[in-house]
Amino acid sequence: MSWFRKERREKTTRRQRLEIPADAWDKCPSCGHTDLREKFERNLQVCMQCGFHRRIGTAGYIAALTDASSFTELYGNLTSVDVLGFEGYEDRIAVALRKAGRQDAILTGHATLTRLPIHLGVMDFAFMGGSMGAVVGEKIARLAKRSLKQRVPLILVSASGGARMQEGALSLMQLAKTSVMIAQLKDNGIPFISILTNPTTGGVSASYAMQGDVNIAEPGAVIGFAGPRVIKQTIGQDLPEGFQTAEFLLDHGMVDLVVSRLELGAVTARLIRLMLKQPAEPAN
Q1: What is the chain's mean pLDDT, rounded?
Q2: pTM
């Protein structure tokens, strides 16, 4: 009888092997946490396990510091030229253009942040180590001048090894050039927020990067002028452990805040509204 007989049925579900491409995974260089590359990208390259901040490009900072689709580039036509005839410099520029895909080591433009107009400059370490030459200095100076004229807050994100050696004294002149424009913003009460990422060194740290009304650093960022070996040889003393990290500088009053990249936009917006005596971000 069928009541007492169990009918055999062919299984409709079969275990299938899940094929995941090898390049779909990524690994944190600090703690070794492994996860999908897409998750790291959504988290702005901040490790979900230990909070380690990996370097990101200009697009990541624009996404973090502006309202969606509000950024418009300015001065994108400025290009470095080999004024001094430095050997191999033109080739280095060509390689940097292929690698970074832009005209120089900083991207500048205007946008909104929580509906407030801002001017934003983001350095690109992929372009010759974010080195500051005449074009970088000119873009920052023009952007600061535009902020002065329109009375719009200025935000600069630094990621640089310093002045560009291939432009000699011309690159060193950019320290004074940018500092003069930042001083004019201060004299006229226009907010300037400087965001220091890993690394911010050399002539950039010796000029506009440390001159913000508020200096914000990312966790673990290396910030300083010269390298530890050069400093030790100069002063002839042993140096404290981690003396060029954002956290050490915060403890010793060199930066004002250490802020996770995930909170950078919200913190910057609150600071700007506070300095402009604006109310809190309006509800949507």
Answers
A1: 92
A2: 0.90
